[in-house]
Amino acid sequence: MSNKKLQVATVGGGCFWCTEAVFQEIEGVEKVVSGYTGGTAPGKPTYREICSGLTGHAEIVQITFDASIISYHDILLIFMTTHDPTTLNRQGADVGTQYRSVIYYHDQVQKEVAEQTATEVAPYFDGAIVTEISPLGLVYEAEDYHQDYYRNNSSQGYCSAVIGPKLSKLRKLHANKLK
Asked: What is the set of active-site residues?
């Protein structure tokens, strides 16, 4: 008999490869799936369409976690402190609405926790928090080659230059939450 209390969080913090790599290291996280949501284009979008910035979708990850081990609030704290929630439609060199900082809530409780967490972390940043907090709509799973991207491509230049520093920041700020 399992005492797991599985919940799902959906967030976008720029490139989903970065966000996926961060949450794969967190104790209590069961699964992380890269995908797209938040847009208005009909049908299942492709990565190429998302990269155009014309679909309105954001690159996101869906994090399945055991709430008896890690709380939704802690998931959001990790999210808000491992990307830059003060840059509108951009993370580093990745620019466009598909790279926006966003928390998609699944219910009213998640919405309230998201709003509280954004307010809680705001004093630690020089700029204003621009993270969008929106209701979750349809989610489209990204193509297979995007799943487990960092694990499968850690020696690639982007992974070393962009994801590596985010993982270092994670390990420094949230060492007590790591697997």
From this structure: 15
